[in-house]
Design a protein that fits this description.
single chain; 12 helices; 2 domains; Rossmann fold; alpha+beta; seven-stranded mixed sheet; four-stranded antiparallel sheet; 455 residues
């Protein structure tokens, strides 16, 4: 399309052109930007940070200072833009997922599934905070955002806008296995995962570290063939109560081994192709047993069988291929899985500290540690402005302990009642409401207990 010269157009021509532009289809994300009380408040009242000396936790005055901010995250980000603009190395946040099940509050009201502005309210909420967060990042800075299916598409489209991070600064979308057994309450498929979106402020300046993996350990445990990694698995002869031939007669047949290349095969007439080929039958202690695999499976997967020569002749074994998470690599994979990432581990860690349930769905510590390990150096400054139970801060302290680092963190969380705190207040109406809020009862107390425990 030729570039137009508007310099000599009159008012009517310009109005006509604007009307035509309005009618054009637009590609991108559009939502009704709903007013938010805390944002409107910031237009007339600048929030400030007040130090609470009585809550200082000092273990070593020579070590770097960390901050826990109690208050609304929009207010906190506004203040931090005066004090820490362009100074943050890594941001991690776990925002409300907007499930419609009392996990997202907008203007002091829960947003439910029937709210026709449900997604617009969430986009209004997250977009204003991400704009402030972006300006806090260094040029080399990286942000991790956990999310699930309810808003992953909207969040990805939002972050891809150039006014936020831009699609050129997209690093990865990491499906993260949080429940390997799966949530069987979901329709159609048992849900196992959430997502973590990773963006850079400037991808050309950002760096993702590698995991520390001992390649000698991998090489000593696994061999490699044309298909990939494997190691010797179970003997192909079946064992157990169902192993005898009379229980599984279809699985009693000869398997042949080619002496030259030690490959295996089966035949329909149970006769070898060559006279000198070796014949194996599933016999144990003179008792006829059965194979674990059928003839059809052996025909299809001869490459998944290992032949071992020993003093008694030959034995055959299954090749065990790596399962999800069995074979780590130095370069992190886009599918994030370790048994330690299970959401139950986050809950168990808090129960170990508090001896009771104090927070719903805390993030597992190892997951956040790995995110920070991959994105920080020993002197990084880390921000989590939706800190919840404080896992990001604990992960920072643990990494410092492991590598003698000096990473610092800034956390922000409110002191509102979560479901657990509200229930406690209902049971004990005489206790101080502030004492059972998220920041005081969970986040601050967790740090205090953890630091004292590790003294």
């Amino acid at each position: 399309m030729a570039k137009r010269d508007y310099k000599n157009w009159d008012k009517n021509d310009l109005i006509k052109e604007i009307e035509q532009l309005r009618k054009r289809k637009k590609y991108g994300l559009v939502w009704e930007d709903k007013p938010e009380n805390v944002v409107e408040q910031c237009k007339t009242e600048l929030p400030v940070l007040e130090e609470v000396k009585s809550k200082e936790i000092i273990t070593d005055p020579d070590k770097p200072m960390n901050l826990l901010i109690e208050g609304d995250n929009y207010h906190a980000l506004s203040v931090l833009n005066y004090t820490h603009k362009g100074k943050i190395d890594v941001i991690y946040i776990d925002p409300p997922y907007n499930t419609g099940n009392k996990d997202f509050v907008y203007n002091d009201h829960y947003v439910d599934k029937e709210d026709s502005f449900r997604h617009s309210k969430w986009l209004s909420f997250i977009s204003k905070r991400l704009k402030l967060a972006k300006s806090l990042l260094k040029r080399t800075g990286i942000i991790f955002i956990s999310i699930d299916d309810n808003e992953i598409a909207n969040l990805k489209a939002l972050c891809d806008y150039s006014s936020f991070f831009g699609e050129n600064n997209f690093i990865a979308c990491l499906p993260t296995i949080m429940n390997l057994k799966g949530n069987n309450d979901q329709f159609g498929f048992a849900g196992t995962h959430e997502y973590t979106l990773v963006y850079a402020k400037d991808k050309t300046k950002a760096k993702i570290n590698n995991f520390n993996i001992d390649e000698e350990d991998i090489n000593s445990s696994w061999e490699i063939d044309d298909i990939g990694y494997f190691k010797k698995g179970a003997n192909l002869k079946a064992t157990g109560t169902n192993a005898p031939r009379y229980k599984r007669p279809n699985l009693f047949f000869p398997i042949f081994i080619n002496k030259k290349d030690l490959t295996v095969y089966v035949t329909e007439d149970n006769k070898p192709i060559r006279k000198d080929d070796i014949t194996l039958l599933p016999i144990t202690n003179n008792e006829e047993m059965s194979w674990r695999w059928s003839k059809d499976k052996i025909k299809k997967e001869p490459f998944n069988i290992i032949v071992v020569k020993n003093k008694d002749g030959y034995s055959i074994y299954k090749k065990q291929r790596p399962q999800l998470g069995d074979l780590p690599t130095k370069k992190p994979k886009t599918l994030f899985y370790k048994p330690e990432y299970s959401s139950g581990n986050g809950t168990a860690e808090l129960k170990r500290i508090f001896k009771e349930k104090v927070f719903d769905n805390p993030k597992p510590l190892q997951l956040i540690k790995d995110f920070l390990f991959l994105s920080t150096n020993k002197n990084s400054l880390i921000l989590d402005f939706m800190a919840g139970s404080g896992t990001t801060g604990i992960a920072t302290l643990e990494l410092n302990k492991e590598d003698n680092g000096s990473r610092r963190f800034i956390l922000c969380t409110n002191n509102e009642l979560n479901g657990v705190g509200a229930k406690l207040l209902e049971e004990k109406p005489n206790i101080n409401k502030d004492d059972v809020g998220i920041c005081n009862r969970v986040t601050y107390s967790r740090f205090k207990k953890t630091i004292i425990e590790n003294k």
